[in-house]
Inverse folding.
């Protein structure tokens, strides 16, 4: 059986590295973990993975990124892949943006940076459980 994909999106490499390390420790080789440094790059990656038939399971995205903000990205991702669990991590997200992502992108969870790794893993597990994964 093919592994599902978890995608982390943040414009800071150090954050992406930390997320990838934490998720690998938590999930081992259960999932393929991919990263993108911008919303635009993440949308391309999502389309590519979707076209190749990969099972997209989770997106963990920052809000404050150059170009496209996280709420706009998650809404676009939701339009293409509505069943994906979407989590926003941010140290400075505007409440209107979080509300918009909850309403228009079925945002599963919002977590403030610095995040708690155990809470993030639990949120991912809960989101997957709610979607029957």
């Amino acid at each position: 059986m093919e592994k599902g994909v978890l995608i982390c999106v943040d414009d800071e490499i150090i954050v992406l590295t930390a997320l990838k390390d934490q998720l690998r420790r938590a999930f081992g080789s259960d999932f393929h973990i991919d990263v993108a440094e911008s919303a635009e790059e993440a949308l391309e990656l999502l389309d590519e993975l979707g076209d190749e038939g990969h099972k997209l399971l989770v997106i963990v995205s920052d809000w404050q990124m150059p170009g496209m903000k996280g709420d706009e990205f998650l809404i676009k991702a939701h339009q293409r892949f509505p069943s994906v669990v979407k989590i926003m991590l941010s140290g400075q997200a505007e409440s209107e943006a979080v509300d918009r992502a909850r309403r228009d992108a079925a945002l599963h969870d919002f977590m403030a940076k610095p995040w708690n790794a155990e809470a993030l893993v639990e949120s991912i597990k809960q989101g997957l459980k709610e979607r029957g994964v």
Observations:
- Strands lie at 4-9, 31-36, 56-62, 85-90, 109-112.
